[in-house]
Amino acid sequence: MAETVADTRRLITKPQNLNDAYGPPSNFLEIDLSNPQTVGIGRGRFTTYEIRVKTNLPIFKLKESTVRRRYSDFEWLRSELERESKGRWSSPGTERTLSPHVFTGRNYR
Question: ∠ CA 58-21-63 to the nearest 5 degrees?
Fold first, then answer.
């Protein structure tokens, strides 16, 4: 059997200035839910939200876009992003009765 040895050398890092430490991250994906609208009547009633996306990630064709979707569509998107992302995520809540808020994922260097 081959023996595994851990590499204990320290990572070589460059000195950081205040702009590097507290400046905006190099990559971001920002998702904003706002403007809830309830449509339908009775049991067919549901609420849609305006979902605005801003990013500088090169995989996206558009840097900004806006769509209107049901909350359940956003729940799916959020779970996919959380599952796939190594960034930091913040979300003010998961209630279906939302006040406008921002769900942001940022990858820090």
Answer: 20
What size, in residues, is the chain?
109
Q: Where are the domains of the chain?
A: 22-107
What are the structure tokens assigned to 46, written together?
């549901």
DSSP 3-state of 94: coil
45-104 pLDDT, tens per residue?
A: 999 999 899 998 888 899 999 999 988 887 877 777 777 766 555 554 444 444 444 445
* Phi, psi at 73, each rounded to 5°: -65, -40
**Triad 60, 87, 72: Cα angle to 5°:** 70
**Closest to 78 in 3D by CA, of 90, 68, 67:** 90
How far apart CA 46 and CA 38 sit, in angstroms, is 6
Residue 23 contacts residue 40 (beta carbons within 8 Å): no
Select the CATH number that applies to the domain covering 22-107 from these four: 3.30.1520, 3.40.50, 3.30.750, 3.40.1350. Answer: 3.30.1520
